[in-house]
Design brief:
This protein is an alpha/beta fold. The chain has a single domain, classed as Spore Coat Polysaccharide Biosynthesis Protein SpsA, Chain A (Alpha-Beta Complex). It has an eight-stranded mixed beta sheet, with helices on both faces. A hairpin with a 2-residue loop joins strand 5 and strand 6. Helix 3 crosses helix 5. The longest helix is centred in the first third of the chain and has 11 residues. The radius of gyration is 17 Å and the shape is globular.
């Protein structure tokens, strides 16, 4: 199975703590955050990673090279900032198979079991499946609602309050041909979650949700970046 990792962002909120590095290289216990992602997903059976990179991409290329353990590594380099949406559309050109593929946010770690996620995706015959995590006191992530059959019905850009919410965990499975209608779209800077996903809903695509009660951390803000070392230590056997 192949995986695209969206790792091209500037990481503005995290820059005061890691001013000289792209966000995926932010050190956690002396190792780049992206290394933890590659370790986990290579152990889950990913054989080809496509890193969607932009800001200071040469540092990422120099660190990881063309091979990581048993997996091949390719790079999709943004000629200009394209956001997660534009970066994804550019990266799909690097896919080598016609099977469903993973998309991973390069600034979050979610310990979803790949085989369980894929089984859910195939059983529902979904076009795309989002991994979901439940959070409380959410003011950073969009709130997701789904019906009793497991289909996602809406994604709101923000959610406030102390009630628990389902949010996007940043691990997706996509059918290989899902994005073909966007193939000729002009590559501009736009968001996968905020702009591309609503277009898929509008086109009546089958978008499923898969709830996983496992480790989740997003390093996008300084306080969670500080927490990451403790959170990731729970998977020391993998790393």
């Amino acid at each position: 199975m192949e995986a695209i990792i969206l790792a091209g962002g500037l990481g503005t909120r995290l820059q005061p703590m890691v001013p000289d590095l792209p966000k995926p290289l932010a050190p956690i216990r002396g190792r780049p955050f992206l290394e933890y992602l590659l370790n986990y997903w290579e152990a889950q059976g990913i054989k080809h990673f496509i890193l969607s990179v932009g800001y200071k991409h040469n540092l990422i290329l120099e660190y990881f090279g063309q091979k990581y353990k048993s997996a091949d590594v390719s790079y999709s380099v943004e000629p200009k900032p394209l956001g997660t949406g534009g970066g994804l559309l550019l990266s799909v050109e690097k896919l080598e198979s016609h099977e469903p593929f993973l998309v991973l946010n390069g600034d979050s770690f979610f310990a979803v079991k790949k085989n369980d996620l894929l089984k859910h995706h195939l059983e529902l015959e979904a076009d795309m499946t989002l991994s979901l995590v439940e959070v409380s006191e959410n003011n950073r992530f969009g709130r997701i609602t789904q019906n009793e059959e497991g289909w996602i019905t809406s994604i709101k850009s923000t959610s406030h309050g102390s009630k628990n919410f389902l949010v996007n965990g940043g691990v997706y499975i996509l059918a290989q041909n899902l994005l073909k209608t966007f193939k000729n779209r002009n590559l501009t800077n736009f968001s996968f979650e905020d702009e591309l996903l609503p277009e898929l809903f509008k086109d009546k695509k089958r978008v499923a949700g898969f709830l996983s009660k496992t480790t989740f951390i997003d390093i996008g803000v300084p306080q969670d970046y500080i927490r990451a070392a403790k959170i990731l230590s729970q998977h020391s056997n993998t790393f």
